[in-house]
Amino acid sequence: MLPVRGRDDCATRVVRILGTRTAWTPVGDGEFFCPGCGGDRNYQRLTGRRRLTVLGVPLVPRGETGPVVECAACGHRYGTDVLDHPTTARFSAMLRDAVHTVALAVLAAGGTGSRTALETAASAVRAAGFADCTEEQLAALVEALAADTGRVLDQQDGAGLAIELHEALDPLAPHLARAGRESILLQAARIALSDGPYTPAERDTLATVGAALTLGTDDVTRLLAAARTPS
């Protein structure tokens, strides 16, 4: 008796006869953080054209697809939104610049008369990646900013200070876990406390830092209180 072919067998044969093939074309390249590899890798940006195939031969155009990002190392393809994540090198630079800006803002709010505050700020900035930062350099920067009436760190211009801090922290905050964002605020609070209790100007600056780091008001209050406790 001959075997009876079912509907599934017929469908399988149709699939084998008909198919879709995508021809990818490179349109750009660069470096990105590959989620699959877990590190910085080179990539190609690809766009594709799909064609209906018959017996493996591409015949009828089916439109465009992509663009996608293909990792040069692992070959995995991702949506272009993967490029929104900074590379490891870029992330380190963003973090370093953010800590530097926050330290300057806190010093500008509290003044540079305290050697202890300058030492605490310089230590934080060096730990973030500016290995050659000195107390004298920070003091000179704050004084220069205060003398430049066009700069946003003018202590009379709270809105300008907020802009300066948001420019440094807004691009970084989405890529930091809550613990990382809280750590930056705690570090800033300890700079402010290093020469005595918070001044009103320092509190305003720290509140601005917390807001730029997308921390709620209650969280900011909790962290400013926690900074008073020796670690």
Write out key terms for the chains shown.
single chain, 231 residues, alpha+beta, 8 helices, 4 strands, 22% strand
Please outline what is shown here.
This protein has helices at residues 7-17, 88-110, 115-128, 135-147, 158-169, 178-193, 200-212, 217-226, and strands at 18-34, 39-54, 57-71, 77-79. With 231 residues, it is of the alpha+beta class. The longest helix has 23 residues, at 88-110.
List the helices and strands and how they pair.
Blueprint: H1 7-17, E1 18-34, E2 39-54, E3 57-71, E4 77-79, H2 88-110, H3 115-128, H4 135-147, H5 158-169, H6 178-193, H7 200-212, H8 217-226
Antiparallel strand pairs: 1-2, 2-3, 3-4
Helix pairs in contact: 2-3, 2-4, 2-5, 2-6, 2-7, 3-4, 3-6, 5-7, 6-7, 6-8, 7-8
SSE string, helix = H, strand = E? HEEEEHHHHHHH
The neighbouring-strand order within the major sheet is 1-2-3-4
Helix content: 40-55%
Low-pLDDT runs of 5+ residues are 1-6, 149-156
| Beginning-to-end CA distance, first to last residue | 85 Å
How does the major sheet shape up?
Answer: 4 strands, antiparallel
* Mean pLDDT level: 85
Number of strands: 4
* Proportion in β-strands: 15-25%
Structural category: alpha+beta
Radius of gyration: 28 Å
Shape: elongated
Count of helix runs: 8
